[in-house]
Amino acid sequence: MTELKKKKLKVKKRKVDLVVISDVHLGTYGCHAKELARYLKTIKPKHLILNGDIIDIWQFSKRYWPKSHMQVVKQLSHMMSKGVKVHYVTGNHDEMLRKFVGFKMGGLEIVNKIILPLGDKKAWIFHGDVFDLTMQHAKWLTKLGAIGYDGLIIINSSVNYILEKLGRDKISFSKKIKNSVKSAVKFINSFENTCAEIAIRDGYDYVVCGHIHQPEIRNITTDKGEVVYLNSGDWIENLTALEYNDNEWRIYKYREDEKAQKETELEDNSVFKDNSELFDELLAEFNISKAK
Hints:
Purple Acid Phosphatase, chain A, domain 2, alpha/beta, globular, 12 strands, 292 residues
């Protein structure tokens, strides 16, 4: 047995009750698929919620689907074959899947939202684009912005590569823009407050969203009551997820997870096979899951 295989056997997965991931945007240049695949390899969730914009159907192209993006699909399929319950909540970039709401395959179900009991509390989980007025009234503008955002991420990656070589800290253009433009800050605050107000009105204890690429956990109080607002962030800039375990929520941050980052050596050498081989394995796991 090679030294690499010995190392693989020692990898112990972290048990988590619930994991929420959103805004992965597979199929775009800005997606950090390798990092997500490494994270998925280190956890063993009972329930996984993919909260929208996992595959970017808006910008999907046959010319760009790297092995690492297929590896994420493979990891998710592997989880399902091991009995992990997976809900795919539709978002705006994968809105085509809304035609298939209610579809079930093994442990996978496609939904628009989830009302999830967590102990004696209830969580309302949905992507969040329903509260985006641009999405509702000028979708073409939103799609144009998505292309511009992906271009900005590509330029940002090139700049950060140079900064890293020079020994300087990385920067995020989009974060600087969001934080400096008053209308962007106002939109984020309005989004969070709207979600919270409706959740309080309907008697939910938690409201869990994605969409705006802003990881957050905070209590929001109005004259009608109180709710915990949560956002899972994204895998374009923040590389974050939400984890619920032992009755507590936390924001997972890949850049602070040394164990997941150590998976780099193992995966770069052995795991990222070509897409045809991964597709064959995917079909094999699907057949096993279907047989069960």
